[in-house]
Amino acid sequence: MASTSSSDNAQSSDTAHLIVVSNRLPVTLAQNGSEWSFKLSSGGLVSALSGLKREMSFTWVGWPGKDFGTSDRVKIDNLLRENSCGAVYLDDETAELYYNGFANSILWPLFHYHPGEMIFEEAAWDAYQRANRAFAEALLDMVKDGDLVWIQDYHLMLLPRMLRGLLDARGLTGVKIGWFLHTPFPSSELYRILPVRRSILEGVLAADLLGFHTYDYARHFLSSCTRILGLATAPTSVEAEGRTVHVGTFPIGIDPGKFAEALQTDTVQRRLSELERRFDGARVVVGVDRLDYIKGVPQKFLAFEHFLSEHPEHVGHVVLVQVAVPSRGDVEEYRQLIASVNELVGRINGRFGTVEYTPIHFLHKSVAFDELVSLYAVSDVCLITSTRDGMNLVSYEYVASQQARHGVLVLSEFAGAAQSLNGALIVNSWNIEEVSDALHQALAMAPAQREANFNLLYKYVNTHTAAYWGVSFINELKRVSQAADELAQLPQLTAQVAQTAFGAATQGLRVLMLDYDGTLSATRTIPDFARPSPQTLRTLRRLAELPRTLVY
Predict the structure, then answer these.
(1) How does the average pLDDT of the chain come out, rounded?
(2) Is the pLDDT assigned to residue 7 strictly greater than 60?
(3) Among 411, 400, 314, 324, residue whose Cα is nearest residue 359
(4) What are the respective helix, strand and coil percentages of the chain, to the nearest 5?
(5) CA pair distance 215, 488, nearest whole angstrom
(6) What letter does residue 155 receive in the DSSP assignment?
(7) Which of 219, 339, 360, 429 is 20 to 30 A from 212 in CA distance terms?
(8) Which of 51-55, 124-128, 337-341, 407-411 is predicted with the least confidence, judged by mean pLDDT?
(9) Which residues are bridge partners to 212 per DSSP?
(10) pLDDT confidence of 214, banded at 50, 70, 90?
(11) What pLDDT band is residue 238 in, cutting at 50, 70 and 90?
(12) What is the DSSP letter of 56?
């Protein structure tokens, strides 16, 4: 990396432009005659980065959703540029194989501990490489030296290395690259079954900063770097190709103000009153999930069935309202999941239901934001039973909507949010009896305890927002990049430099002061294992025996 002065670094850091890169652009394009328009899409990443948008400006780069002809591309590019976006175009075959064939059929199940769902095909891997290369080439025309590039998620794990290579070839060595994973990172024992495991790790290690939701995910990644690539790691970094790649934890958040504002609107207040009349005399448990095998919806229904069976006094008085947002219904595994869930709903409602009472209200569809906030606000308990989840922001949204009722959050220990939300009832979602007991505990909890737990939750959700997450990552990327630039200015200590300086010291004592960790010994997480090698010790003794020489 080219060395620059500290003042130059500070100046470039202040003027650096931020480019956020994700698989999809946050827009849906529509054509009306010869004109194009777009509207903002929904989604977790869109919601998270909308909070960051309030704190700093950035350009969002991604795939627009399908391929377009040359003339349409010119119009679309102009439209997107006016709205701080940039498109990466992929042909339809590459997009399908890259997204569904590799990212969602290999990395998604592997990272969520479902290796049995993996289907590895060479054509899909080739498409994944082509797509990442297309992103790198598109970014090359947008990035200026000193810019910050923040790459999102498992769809683009080869992009840091590909982009770094193209930038270096052009002499753009001042670009800083960050990468963030929105899913779990699996244990090294599981990750190592991936046929292209080395390429994926080497791809992200070209970044300056790697971000994860939790320390566990970061620890698993570092372990994979050691076991598979043989690299030296520390708790917050890994040494790769002569560079220090920093690793950090950055739990994502939401924009709680958006929910607080919605609760004050006439639309939500009217709907809330309707729901309160509809469920008058009943306690409401709410669940909101994409219908995905990682979300544990069948486990939730089985636990609710067990709860009603073990506590018959609640039959007729407790209902579960489950919103299940459709997801990938064209994939066989998902079709089987839908069939299984529908069968459970029918069985439980048939067993416990009456003309007046329906235990499970199952909504297999997306719901409008106002309806979602109303459901959160009317409920007494939110039940989340993910079997593996990167974070799960439904838990945050529920807390942000519960300032009046102080509802209880029952949260799976396998969701990343469980490591942050002190005040929730944490459960093993695979243990049906434990989830059932937690549900009973939540409904029986005294108002004072509910309020105390809620206050803990609300304080965290209200401070660790989406904006806080984004700004924290970008500030850390700037910090580690500036530190690396400053380190690059230090003169390199080669054998020739050391010998020359040692030989020139002819007057008085020659004092050698040597660092220990990382110099005389490799850096170890356990200090007792940080011991110099026998050869190093012999060399130190020979130096100490030289006349006029002190070794410290």
Answers:
(1) 91
(2) no
(3) 314
(4) 50, 20, 35
(5) 29
(6) G
(7) 429
(8) 51-55
(9) 249
(10) very high
(11) very high
(12) S
Beta-carbon contacts of residue 221 (< 8 Å; ≥ 6 apart)? 185, 210, 212, 247
Q: What residues are paired with 405 via a beta bridge?
A: none
The residue among 422, 463, 23 whose CA lies nearest residue 254 is 463
Q: Give the model confidence (pLDDT) of 503-523 as tens digits.
A: 777 777 888 888 777 677 766
The residue count of the chain comes to: 552
Q: The tokens 């356990």 sit on which residue?
A: 526
For residue 399, the one-letter residue type is V
Q: pLDDT tens digits, residue range 279-297?
A: 999 999 999 999 999 999 9
Mean pLDDT in residue range 223-247: 95
From 182, 213, 406, 464, active-site residue: 182
Q: Is pLDDT at 141 greater than 60 in this prediction?
A: yes
C-alpha dihedral, 137 to 138 to 139 to 143, nearest 10°: 100
Alpha carbons 31 and 552: distance in angstroms, whole number: 73
Which tokens in the block code for residue 461? 């959700």
388: pLDDT strictly greater than 70: yes
**389 annotated active-site:** yes
Report the relative pairing of strands 360-363 and 318-325 from DSSP bridges: parallel
Whole-number Å distance between alpha carbons of 453 and 405: 12
The residues with which 287 forms a beta bridge, in sequence order, are 322
Q: How many CA atoms lie within 13 A of 429 on its CB side?
A: 23
Our answer to whether residue 380 is catalytic in this structure is no
**43: alpha, beta or left, given left = phi > 0 and alpha = psi -120 to 50?**
left
Give pairs for 415-419: CB < 8 Å, separation 24+: 415/384, 415/386, 415/389, 415/391, 416/184, 416/213, 416/214, 416/217, 416/251, 416/389, 416/390, 416/391, 416/392, 417/251, 417/389, 417/391, 417/392, 417/393, 419/214, 419/215, 419/216, 419/251
Contact present, 180 and 148 (Cβ < 8 Å) = no
Q: Which residue type is seen at 431?
A: N
SS3 482: helix
> Can you give the pLDDT at residue 487?
58
Q: How far apart are CA 151 and CA 177, in angstroms?
A: 7
* Across 350-371, average pLDDT: 96
Longest dimension (CA), the chain: 101
Q: Say which residue the tokens 């949260």 belong to.
A: 411
* Given the residues 153, 289, 389, 437, the one annotated as active site: 389
Q: Are 399 and 409 in contact (CB under 8 A)?
A: yes
C-beta of residue 473 within 8 angstroms of C-beta of residue 212 = no
- Quote the CA–CA distance of 385 and 122 in Å, as a whole number: 35
Supply φ then ψ for residue 61, to 5 degrees: -115, 135
- CA distance linking residue 95 with residue 66, whole number of Å: 8
What pLDDT, on the 0 to 100 scale, is given for residue 40?
76
Handedness of CA 154, 364, 442, 260 (dihedral sign): positive
